[in-house]
Queue: 2 jobs
Job 1
Amino acid sequence: MAASSQQLSHRDRQILCGLFLSKFDKKALRYLGFDGFTEAFNVLGYSLDARPASIKNYRDELDPFFPNARKGWYKRAIREHCQRILDIYGGVGLADLGEMIKGFLLPTRKTDSMPEVKRVLNLHDPEPSASFAKRLITGKAAEQYFRTHYEAMAEFAAAPLTDTTGWGCGFDFKVTPHGSHLFCAVEVKGLRGRSGQIQMTDLEYEVAEALRERYFLVLVRNFVEVPFHSVVNDPTQSGIKFARVARKEIRVSWTASIDDA
């Protein structure tokens, strides 16, 4: 069965994640690169602009229909919207369903045309599961956490927020405090645990150095348990020690000489 996410609503995508975790259990965690269910609920929930508990609830509701060790909500009738997703996608295999979920969580992936090419060339998935989970944590899930919680952060409370994640300007959000014509820049980084390594691009670092006290680094930590955040102002002059890392990129191309016809 060819799976497609074109017609899935916001709620349908949450249900599909719950179905995937229910049907394939720990295999589903490994396929998406998560260490445990709590991390999966947190990362998938925030990435889909939903409560992590919603992903867990959908998994529990669908558990009675799959042979895993959990009983789930076996005493309660399945809801119509969950039954519809179960009818359509309940028979889809691990790889097809997993790639479908990866596709709508990171839409830049060209998943629709890749399976046929990979089968012909015997290629491996270009993005390992661990890398996929890391991209969600360091990007989409962390950014959505900030959108959800920024008004409760003292540094940004009640200030208008502009999403600049697609601008390529060296920060993720622009915050303009009331009564000021100057904006503050916010760059969001996610960490799987309570501590870990972060990376700033050369552009992000240059903008942080230029804006100084108007640049904020928001660290969203501990997706493996309960996410929380810390805010660092003027990060290049803070207690965080950055080390410059230079990498030479090698690009391969193929040239050919064309004779005069």
Job 2
Amino acid sequence: MADTIFTRIIKGEIPSHKVYEDAHVFAFLDIAPLSPGHTLVVPKEPAATLDALSDEASAAIGRVLPRICRAVMKETGATAYNILQNNGAEAHQAVFHVHFHVIPKHGASGLGIGWKPQRLDAAAGRDLADRLAAAIGS
């Protein structure tokens, strides 16, 4: 995978406002925040999308993400937040290195979401769930 702006930030080639770092994860403030405290949590392992990330790097993010969320909430005074993670251009991913946005809500600032739910057909749902379970087991 070619270097992205995030790999260059992790390497220290581009300055950032670092809030956390360990052997597997780097977290820093977004330079174009949706609200104060908007933080990016990035695995050091280069992978464009979450499905390409190793179990080890995924687990490392899972261990630290709640701690970062607690710190963002405490230090910004936010009472709510969103976690956003996009995979692929059609899903609005702009930097092709896995990253999680921690976006605090401060009144109207923060993430706005449009949600258009659909109905799940029971038979189609059972079939898809069975196929997904089989694929996960492989």
